[in-house]
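ESCALATION

Customer reports they have been waiting on this structure for their group meeting. Please prioritize. Original submission:
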Amino acid sequence: MKILQALPALYSGGVERGTVEFAAELVKRGHQSFVVSNGGPMAEQVRGQGSTHIHMPIHRKTPASFGQVLPMRKLLQELKPDIVHVRSRMPAWIIHLALKTLPQHERPAIVSTFHGMYSVNPYSAIMARADQVIAVSNCVRDYVLENFPVPENKLTVIQRGVNIDAFRNRAINDQWLNILLSRFPQLAGKKIIMMPGRISRWKGQLHFMEAMARIVRQRPDCHGIIVGGAEPGKERFLQELEKERSRLGLTNKVTFLGQRNDMTNLYLLADVVCHMSTKPEPFGRTVTEALASGTPVVAYNRGGAAETLQACFREGLVTPDDTGAFASAVLGLLDKPRPEIELPERFLLRAQTEATLRVYQQTLNGKPV
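Update from on-call: job pushed to the front of the queue and completed.
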């Protein structure tokens, strides 16, 4: 098959990383893989893994983006993909409008993925107009069925898969550790409590600060690390977090590591990984990655992150928004041996790839000739 994935850009989020990994799997299985986006740091990775990246400014949620409709129409006519997989709303609208003037027999099949609980409005409804729709978790599936006109027989739950071989049966690289500790000597000899995720209010970093204040009162040997960068234009919240760290007396107890590309080692370094989103997370990729590494996770009992823990590590679930209970759960795990955690097959990348290819084939089988 010839498959084109479309998304706004290729930075560091879960959607972007999932797209890049899936593109690599398509190439491994002998398919032709194209990714259309406004580019970003991961575009080179796409090309290096054998896919074709096509730069197109389809990322802005403004009327100006509709200027890309004709270039997109020309691209689709040239490539003639079998499947176009839209992973975001603005690219979906551009592709929808680009295809409207093409004869039916020249149009590719369209698959969309609901990566989140999108606002219920006409702009979001474009994701429901695909030939087949994928939801990344059961909670997203329920949200889609409740709010959008998608028949159940056109909606499939496919969890974001983790490349298990990248995380399991690994040891921390000594050279990497020495470099890390030379830059952040305050981490040496500490129990590491890690909060991964981009710097965003709803990701829960303020809750993490509250929990860390409770944790270090009982365990001064603990140190928190916040891993992730602030999106352009949202640096103000990072400054707010730094002020809160100072107010709580955590200046020497919580470190911001910024955006990193060494997550496999950081998961192994961490004694506990935290997931504290203040609203239901559609999936929660860091949860599956940490569990794949054998590192225990504590998370609020809601959203996609809770679905993962319910499947393989129920002791990590905590009442939502209760930072005291969260701190107690972390403290209870610190002196225990790393648990034996086995992710169910549906959370693995190979299962995601196979399930998505089945959806593609089902879509093509139902496409008018």
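Sent to customer with the following note: The chain has two domains: 2-161+348-365, 166-344.
Escalation resolved.
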